[in-house]
């Protein structure tokens, strides 16, 4: 057995050195986080592995957007699976600001002031719905001249082509990393697409997304995924993985519980019972807020993979 070692932080140390000490501490979530960094390092270095990043939209309303962007910029992942809200926030924040807020506030008062709340982030109405409506009308009008039917990953690239370098979608477009949005109509961008289709022969072909994702997975030798949160993006990732025999690498980061039977709280071991993660896979569950864990994980990986 390996003995538990105390933290010893003397002067300045790098995030990677701190994570290494977490791995030696033997204790609780910090030890698991350090193990997750080791697992992800191995997954990224495995050239035979097709790597998927799955996440919900809420974290894109925070500064964690920059971590997801840099994951893509560094080409550590080969595909993203997310929700329509990711398109919403990434597009909106390329042109408008979101603001620091509070969990403890009168939401009725915010509503009167035309401010939306996402946890402790405040989003003025002009920074969300209005700017998305304006920009999507422009984008859809331009791409409609080229063709009348797009997959969701093609729409994501078309949006990214027109955004700044601080956005996730820009780097997905530049690096040709597909963004799959199985729930494309569940958000402001999706609603604008639907509105546009009311007087135009414009369609989103989600079956084309399914075909491309299936082809990518079937043509891979190994599969790995960093899965943040739950919902449709998590399920879509592990659903497709089962047809290739399951994930070879898997890291779940969640704050949800498993005792209510929810997918968001389901642990990796449950996915093994479905064949969505292989029995011999390298897999870990990290019970943590992604906005806390991801900056630490990214910083440690950045130092190791440079």
Describe what this molecule looks like in 3D.
With 306 residues, this protein is of the alpha/beta class. It has 13 helices and eleven strands. Helix 11 links the parallel strand 9 (222-228) and strand 10 (247-254). It starts with 14 loop residues before the first helix and ends with a helix.
What is the fold's blueprint, element by element?
Elements: H1 15-25, H2 28-45, E1 49-54, H3 65-73, E2 79-81, H4 84-93, E3 99-100, H5 107-112, E4 115-118, E5 121-124, H6 129-143, E6 149-150, H7 152-161, H8 168-174, E7 179-180, H9 188-197, E8 203-204, H10 206-218, E9 222-228, H11 231-241, E10 247-254, H12 268-274, E11 277-287, H13 290-305
Parallel strand pairs: 1-2, 1-9, 2-7, 6-8, 9-10, 10-11
Antiparallel strand pairs: 3-5, 4-5
What share of residues is helical? 40-55%
Strand content: 15-25%
Distance between the termini: 32 Å
Largest pleated sheet? 6 strands, parallel
Rounded mean pLDDT score: 97
Unreliable segments of 5+ consecutive residues: none
- The order of strands across the largest sheet is 7-2-1-9-10-11
Topology pattern, helix = H, strand = E: HHEHEHEHEEHEHHEHEHEHEHEH
From the alpha-carbon coordinates, what is the Rg to the nearest angstrom? Answer: 20 Å
User: How many helices in DSSP terms?
Assistant: 13
- From the spread of the alpha carbons, the general shape counts as globular
Indicate the structural class: alpha/beta
User: What is the strand tally?
Assistant: 11
């Amino acid at each position: 057995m390996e003995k538990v070692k105390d933290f010893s932080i003397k002067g300045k140390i790098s995030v990677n050195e701190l994570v290494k000490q977490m791995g030696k501490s033997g204790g609780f979530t910090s030890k698991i986080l350090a193990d997750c960094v080791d697992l992800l390092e191995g997954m990224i270095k495995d050239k035979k592995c097709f790597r998927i990043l799955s996440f919900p939209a809420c974290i894109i309303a925070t500064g964690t957007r920059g971590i997801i962007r840099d994951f893509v910029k560094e080409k550590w992942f080969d595909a993203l699976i997310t929700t329509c809200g990711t398109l919403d926030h990434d597009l909106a924040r390329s042109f408008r600001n979101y603001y620091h807020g509070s969990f403890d506030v009168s939401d009725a008062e915010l509503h009167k002031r035309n401010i939306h709340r996402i946890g402790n982030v405040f989003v003025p109405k002009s920074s969300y719905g209005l700017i998305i409506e304006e920009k999507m009308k422009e984008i859809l009008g331009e791409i409609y001249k080229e063709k009348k039917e797009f997959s969701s990953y093609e729409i994501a690239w078309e949006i990214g082509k027109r955004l700044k370098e601080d956005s996730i979608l820009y780097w997905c477009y530049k690096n040709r990393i597909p963004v799959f949005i199985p729930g494309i109509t569940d958000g402001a961008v999706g609603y604008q697409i639907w509105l546009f289709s009311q007087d135009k022969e414009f369609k989103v072909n989600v079956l084309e997304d399914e075909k491309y994702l299936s082809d990518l997975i079937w043509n891979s030798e190994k599969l790995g995924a960093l899965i943040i949160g739950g919902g449709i993006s998590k399920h879509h990732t592990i659903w497709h993985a089962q047809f290739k025999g399951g994930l070879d690498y898997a890291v779940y980061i969640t704050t949800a519980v498993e005792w209510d039977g929810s997918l968001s709280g389901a642990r990796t071991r449950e996915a093994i019972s479905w064949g969505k993660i292989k029995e011999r896979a390298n897999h870990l569950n990290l019970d943590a807020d992604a906005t806390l864990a991801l900056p630490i994980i990214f910083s440690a990986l950045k130092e190791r993979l440079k």
